[in-house]
């Protein structure tokens, strides 16, 4: 009997390690996901999977996904569900935009995209402004209500499913790229708790980079870490735009060592005003972040009603 008890105690004392999963754009969703050679390809595959506390989902360095990561599972106290990077090179990126690369001349320096888009202004009322990239220098565009009003550089509009911009030459050569927001969020935690995000860059979404859920409401949830990320170009700047780098109010929340820039409303919003039922949010640590090129409130805003 003593031997059985000792064996049981030894089994119970063995640490439980989770499963590692790998995602790269050159992968295949039919794979197991449990090694680089068997990596999945899409974030949709991650969203449709079930994970356990202690599992890790690694995204390949240098790769870009134009999907929303909707976290499907949560961790537990002391054992987070981890989202990070593997390989070498730049952080993996999750973007809320679709890029347009070819244009048709409409005359009078107005150019029409060759592919269709949902209006960035309809993702949530008056939210997004497209982003112009000039050789690594990026800036929000200036929205105009119709093509007749396009009279200066960086001005843009949307009409009948197409983006129109003002440019004195073909935008395909004038700009390195133009990002058009097509999703409200880059990463939604879906009100799951005990999550750790490390070195996953996000940008070019209409509402938020990291958000608690797809309704932009706040729930009583514990445990999230967001660190070592670049969070950029969220929302817009013309009109009453929003755009939050991180919009969450978790207890036991850490946001550290991130770079926030070009967020249309606030870089970090710890905001509980959308909920009628009060609760206590505690143990929030925000440290060693950098903030620049904000539009409304450059860094941190806390609203508790």
Number of continuous helical runs: 3
Helix content: under 10%
Proportion of residues in β-strands: 35-45%
N/C terminus separation: 59 Å
Kindly name the structural category: mainly beta
Radius of gyration: 21 Å
Q: In one word, what is the shape?
A: globular
**Major beta sheet, strand line-up:** 1-2-5-17-20-23-26
As an assembly, this protein is: single chain
- Mean pLDDT figure: 90
Query: Main beta sheet: strand number and arrangement?
Result: 7 strands, parallel
* Beta-strand segment tally: 28
Low-pLDDT regions: 5-15
Descriptive key words:
28 strands, mainly beta, 3 helices, 305 residues, six-stranded parallel beta sheet, seven-stranded parallel beta sheet
Please provide a written account of the structure:
With 305 residues, the protein is mainly beta. The protein has helices spanning 2-13, 43-47, 171-174; strands at residues 20-23, 56-60, 64-65, 69-70, 81-86, 93-95, 97-100, 103-105, 110-113, 131-134, 137-140, 142-143, 155-159, 162-166, 177-181, 185-188, 195-198, 201-203, 208-211, 222-227, 230-234, 244-247, 251-256, 259-263, 266-271, 284-287, 290-292, 297-303. The strands form five sheets. A seven-stranded parallel sheet has the order 1-2-5-17-20-23-26, with no helix packed on it. Mean pLDDT is 90; it is low at 5-15.
How does the SSE layout of this entry go?
Blueprint: H1 2-13, E1 20-23, H2 43-47, E2 56-60, E3 64-65, E4 69-70, E5 81-86, E6 93-95, E7 97-100, E8 103-105, E9 110-113, E10 131-134, E11 137-140, E12 142-143, E13 155-159, E14 162-166, H3 171-174, E15 177-181, E16 185-188, E17 195-198, E18 201-203, E19 208-211, E20 222-227, E21 230-234, E22 244-247, E23 251-256, E24 259-263, E25 266-271, E26 284-287, E27 290-292, E28 297-303
Parallel strand pairs: 1-2, 2-5, 3-6, 4-16, 5-17, 6-18, 12-13, 16-19, 17-20, 18-21, 19-22, 20-23, 21-24, 22-25, 23-26, 24-27, 25-28
Antiparallel strand pairs: 7-15, 8-9, 9-14, 10-11, 10-15, 13-14
